[in-house]
Amino acid sequence: MASARCIMYLTGQHPLIPPHLSLLEEITHITLAFLPSSIFNEPNRSSWPLFTTVESVRAQFPKRRQDGSSSSGVKVMVAIGGWGDTEGFEIAARTEEGRKVFARKVGDMVEETGADGVDIDWEYPGGNGEDYKRTPNNSKTWQITAYPLLLQEIRSALGPTKLISAAVPGLPRDMLAFTPQTLPAIAASLDFFNIMTYDLMNRRDTVTKHHTGIQLSIDAVKAYNGNGVSREKTNLGFAFYVKWFRVKPRAQYCAYNDPPLGCPTVLMEDPITGADLGQAGAFSWHDRVPDELNASFSRAMRGVRYDGVGGGAYYWDEEGSIWWSWDTPEAISRKFPRIVRKMGLGGVFAWGLGEDANEWAHLRALTDGVRGNRRLDEGRDADGDVYHQGVLLAKDEL
């Protein structure tokens, strides 16, 4: 099964679209991020503070041939919520009336902006969100049953032709609302799941691992597929940014491990409030490298290595006591045969499109992977070899 969907989040922080047609041809969906969840609790709301317009974005993408006879433009969706934005969802989800108001306003927004659908970024229903230290998970268990009810109302408001997706956690420890009991109802309302197979190491961790490694990504996909999400509705996530983590200065022994996984980090979040202590971070390929990280990052770019078992690009900076984790273009390419193709997933997505400017190297690797998958399913690869259902055919089988 080819990855038919290629979804790019387009963010207000990096609202950039590449000028090269070849990098746009495989993109099927653009998701504009974000609208705050709280505005959909306002019954009289009639304005939608997007950083751009649906039509202006749609106009920048080529028409795409989908079946050889009809052409279609890119689908433009609007993402609601995002990391740390939970209050609006929580207010809406508590009551039937709240869910109806929220869903009705989502429907109004889609109609008035001309969007093709919405992406629900209530990323951690049930707990483990940004406020998990201040608001314990046991006070959020009600959200586990309320989340699918909110999605049902949104589906009812939008009808069967508009798209609904959801950004969902990539770490099993965060999948509190995504269980064998709840996922069938959730899946009934969604067209696809954007599994966040990145940030798989974050400031809550205490030892080094790949933030977007192959094996951890496979584990995430299996968790959803095993609990009832079809492979066709599954999208694999890619990160167009770099992550770094400070490790304990006495952990130099990790330099002799290959790869240096499981090495102790410094304390990265406040144990009482969960606040970021500034010992880890991320930046996109379009961002300026922070001055204090420049020397270490230069060493990382020169010395990058790849873990062939766990599947991830990395660099252990012994001099600076920093663990670097990111996807190189080559690492992105490896994920297509090992995950997307092998597991028969319905699509891929990336956070985010403009984050890869100005070189667009990671976007190129991603779209090349999508294009290669399509060629395999169409039966012939770039070298002229012919495949049937992913199996290379011998000359006498043609």
Provide a quick synopsis of the model.
The chain is α/β, with parallel strands linked by helices and 398 residues long. It contains nine helices and 17 strands. It has one domain: TIM Barrel (Alpha-Beta Barrel).
Class computed from helices, strands and strand pairing? alpha/beta
Strand order, biggest sheet?
Answer: 1-2-5-6-7-8-9-15
Query: Residue ranges: pLDDT <50 for 5 or more in a row?
Result: 65-71, 384-398
CATH class: Alpha Beta
Number of domains: 1
Tally of alpha and pi helices: 9
Shape: globular
* Count of β-strands: 17
**What is the CA–CA distance across the termini?**
21 Å
What does the average pLDDT come to?
91
Task: Tell me the name of the CATH homologous superfamily.
Answer: Glycosidases
Q: Determine Rg (CA atoms, Å).
A: 21 Å
- What is the string of SSEs from the N terminus onward? EEHEEEHHEHEHEHEEEHEEEHEHEE
Helix content: 25-40%
Q: Please tell me the CATH architecture by its name.
A: Alpha-Beta Barrel
Q: Indicate the proportion of strand residues.
A: 15-25%
Instruction: Please summarize the sheet with the most strands.
Output: 8 strands, parallel, barrel
| Named CATH topology | TIM Barrel
